[in-house]
Amino acid sequence: MLELLELRYDTHSTIFASQFLPEGWHQNLGGGALADAILDRIIANSYLIHTKENHSMRTRENK
């Protein structure tokens, strides 16, 4: 992931979709220096769009 982000950094747009809050990304990426490097490239010059609604198909009742 780091290599891909490095290639795209400051030249292309990249969209990430996650079911985790940004506060948990570092831990979910394994922590440490590698997670720091990945997040540096993701968070720099980024826009965060957070939806609070539950969009999971698993929680909908079948009618």
From TrEMBL:
One of its GO terms (molecular function) is ATP binding. Residues 1-62 form the IstB-like ATP-binding domain. This is IstB-like ATP-binding domain-containing protein.
